[in-house]
């Protein structure tokens, strides 16, 4: 059954129907279409189109249909419906009779499909954020494992200067972090609801579109109906974010394909991500990485196709836009699959440390160090550069590395060279001199690792205190600990839908806080107090419902307290509480606060998050007065803890 047959005398040809129908692609939005329909039923009930009984019958039927689709989505493909909207309406009419025909009152497939697609993008975006964070963690784990492994660095695919394998891993951590930023930006901009925009001119019914948007989990409604139904910027932005990230994944794959080659022999891929040759039994091919590299082009193609489709479309909706979903769905599936495969690659990678060290020692990678040594002897860099070039030529002629040339041979090129030159030509010296922020020195890599790890484990502290005692920059390492860790934790929190609170959250925050206050876990807050301090609160959401909250109270320039960390009972054990605290710690870092305190009855919980016990009596009197003990608890059980922002434990 088509939704538009009244105007036509003849049926469409089967050939056209096959060409026109989108159900084989957009069936994936069935749940979103049903969720949007439930919200629309409530909206038109509020303006008198449906009575209470009709709303109840439609809602029950739609929820029943939603459960059926979630259990078996492929059932939809057995239908000859034109699209997912037609299929849902047909099923609804079968369940409720003529009542099902009333649901589309005031609504168009134009605003319906735009809403469905944005809902799908919001849900899929959350999965992609988690995948990116997991990929960052996999690279962090590999960096931790290989932080001391020397690796030749390359420019122009020529050996340049030695780095460490851990430093190489951290380069990709930074790339994937930018990917997270791009994805979050795209998800923020698409978080506006087009429902209620009609075909192009808006709906004739007095729908409260902002209330409708909030019911669907959007932050607000669109402002212009023409734009709302014809906008596909969110599709293009997601494809763009995917394309940049796939470019990063492709570079990651290309590096490892080269490192895995027989000519390099730096790494060996796990059997779990490799295949063999049907003819040559000795072959072990890096197929996972080659496929990641190849699939990047597929995602790029989807972006190019969508840009080309949209570039000359007059307002408002055009059927060309039906082509938005197939490329988007495929690109998002491909991106997610490639990220998950890259985690498998990183987890199973074996590094040949002796081979990487030998390669780093070849190719005269320490030539720059010799030039810097001469500069330290007051020789201008350009002159030093020329001298070292001549030294390298002589070493090549003799077939020896620079450090094997005798002092007499070196002094033939400059009499300023002395015996101390050899300490500057070692691999260790070459690495450890790169002490500036972001450099490849062992101290800097250690610093970045300690800062980025999402779970700060005692084993890492042991490594720092025992294995790097006396190393350059140890104090600097301690001062900078957790900075990137906080960033990664904040990314996780954002992926778990932790955000700054809004005025519309006041009642939810007030109810949550006072539920737990009644149980004696925290102090109560009045609604007026929540309103007054709303800028200090953050909330965690699940399926658009506020399930947790916490607040940051600032006492003075460098000091703040985390208060009122609570999570709804039904949402506990899912990481929401930790995500709230981690979000506030990153916010404190951005505000340049120095110390965060908590007064708590559960110190073990905050210990896991990097807090340390302190003497409660060391706190200022006003802090103790503000945080009077709960009447339901023994005051002696309450302890004070602190977190030094940007530092280790």
From TrEMBL:
CDD domains: Argininosuccinate_lyase
Catalytic activity of the protein: L-glutamate + acetyl-CoA = N-acetyl-L-glutamate + CoA + H(+); 2-(N(omega)-L-arginino)succinate = fumarate + L-arginine
PROSITE patterns in the cross-refs: FUMARATE_LYASES, GNAT
Main location: cytoplasm
Record bears the keyword Nucleotide-binding: no
Keyword Transferase (UniProt): yes
Enzyme class: lyase
Residues covered by the N-acetyltransferase domain: 496-646
Gene3D superfamilies in alphabetical order: 3.40.630.30, Fumarase/aspartase (C-terminal domain), Fumarase/aspartase (Central domain), Fumarase/aspartase (N-terminal domain)
A single MF term (Gene Ontology): L-glutamate N-acetyltransferase activity
GO cellular component: cytosol
Pathway recorded for this protein: Amino-acid biosynthesis; L-arginine biosynthesis; L-arginine from L-ornithine and carbamoyl phosphate: step 3/3; Amino-acid biosynthesis; L-arginine biosynthesis; N(2)-acetyl-L-ornithine from L-glutamate: step 1/4
GO biological process terms, semicolon-separated: L-arginine biosynthetic process via ornithine
SUPFAM superfamilies the record matches: Acyl-CoA N-acyltransferases (Nat) (SSF55729), L-aspartase-like (SSF48557)
Cellular localisation: Cytoplasm
Keywords: Acyltransferase, Amino-acid biosynthesis, Arginine biosynthesis, Cytoplasm, Lyase, Multifunctional enzyme, Transferase
Enzyme Commission code: 4.3.2.1
Family: In the C-terminal section; belongs to the acetyltransferase family. ArgA subfamily.
Identification of the protein by name: Argininosuccinate lyase
Organism of provenance: Litorilituus sediminis
Encoding gene per record: argH
């Amino acid at each position: 059954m088509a939704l538009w047959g009244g105007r036509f005398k003849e049926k469409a040809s089967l050939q056209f129907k096959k060409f026109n129908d989108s159900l084989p692609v957009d069936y994936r939005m069935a749940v979103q279409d049903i969720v949007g329909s439930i919200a629309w039923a409530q909206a038109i009930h509020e303006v008198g189109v449906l009575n209470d009984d009709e709303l109840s019958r439609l809602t029950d039927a739609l929820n029943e249909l939603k459960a059926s689709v979630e259990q078996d989505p492929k059932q939809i493909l057995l239908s000859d419906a034109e699209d997912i909207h037609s299929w849902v309406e047909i099923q609804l009419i079968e369940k409720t009779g003529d009542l099902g025909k009333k649901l589309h009152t005031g609504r168009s497939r134009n605003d319906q499909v735009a809403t469905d697609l944005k809902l799908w993008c919001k849900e899929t975006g959350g999965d992609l954020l988690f995948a990116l964070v997991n990929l960052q963690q996999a690279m962090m784990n590999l960096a931790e494992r290989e932080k001391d492994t020397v690796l030749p660095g390359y420019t122009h695919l020529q050996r340049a200067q030695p780095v460490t394998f851990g430093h190489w891993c951290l380069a990709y951590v930074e790339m994937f972090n930018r990917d997270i930023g791009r994805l979050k930006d795209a998800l923020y901009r698409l978080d506006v609801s087009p429902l209620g925009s009609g075909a192009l001119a808006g709906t004739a019914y007095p729908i409260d579109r902002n209330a409708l948007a909030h019911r669907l989990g959007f932050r607000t409604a669109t402002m212009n109906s023409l734009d709302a139904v014809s906008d596909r910027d969110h599709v293009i932005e997601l494809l763009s974010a995917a394309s940049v990230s796939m470019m990063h994944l492709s570079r990651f794959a290309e590096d490892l394909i080269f490192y895995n080659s027989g000519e390099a022999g730096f790494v060996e891929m796990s059997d779990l991500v490799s295949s063999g040759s049907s003819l040559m039994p000795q072959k072990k091919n890096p197929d996972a990485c080659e496929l990641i590299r190849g699939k990047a082009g597929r995602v790029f193609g989807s972006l190019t196709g969508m840009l080309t489709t949209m570039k000359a479309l007059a307002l408002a909706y055009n059927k060309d836009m039906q082509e938005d979903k197939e490329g988007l769905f495929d690109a998002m599936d491909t991106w997610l699959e490639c990220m998950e495969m890259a985690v498998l690659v990183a987890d199973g990678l074996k590094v040949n440390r002796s081979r990487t060290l030998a390669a780093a020692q070849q190719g005269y990678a320490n030539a720059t160090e010799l030039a810097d040594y001469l500069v330290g002897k007051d020789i201008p860099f350009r002159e030093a550069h020329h001298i070292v070039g001549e030294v390298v030529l002589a070493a090549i002629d003799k077939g020896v590395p620079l450090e094997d040339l005798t002092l007499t041979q070196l002094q033939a090129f400059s009499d300023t060279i002395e015996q101390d030159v050899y300490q500057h030509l070692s691999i260790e010296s070459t690495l450890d001199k790169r002490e500036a922020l972001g450099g490849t020195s062992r101290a800097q890599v250690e610093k970045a690792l300690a800062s980025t790890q999402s779970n700060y484990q005692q084993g890492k502290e042991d490594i720092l205190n025992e294995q790097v005692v006396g190393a350059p920059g140890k104090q600097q390492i301690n001062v900078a600990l957790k900075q990137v860790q906080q960033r990664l934790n904040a990314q996780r929190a954002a992926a778990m839908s932790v955000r700054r609170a809004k005025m519309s959250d006041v009642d939810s925050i007030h109810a949550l806080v006072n539920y737990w206050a009644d149980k004696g876990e925290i102090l109560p807050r009045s609604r007026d107090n929540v309103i007054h301090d709303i800028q200090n609160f953050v909330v965690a959401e699940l399926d658009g419902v506020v399930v947790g909250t916490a607040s940051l109270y600032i006492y003075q320039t460098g000091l703040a307290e985390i208060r009122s960390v609570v999570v709804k009972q039904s949402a506990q054990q899912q990481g929401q509480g930790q995500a709230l605290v981690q979000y506030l710690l990153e916010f404190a870092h951005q505000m340049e606060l120095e110390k965060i305190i908590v007064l708590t009855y559960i110190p073990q919980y905050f210990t896991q998050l990097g807090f340390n016990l302190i003497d409660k009596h060391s706190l200022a009197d006003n802090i103790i007065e503000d945080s009077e003990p709960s009447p339901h608890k023994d005051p002696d059980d309450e302890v004070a803890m602190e977190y030094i922002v940007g530092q280790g434990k």
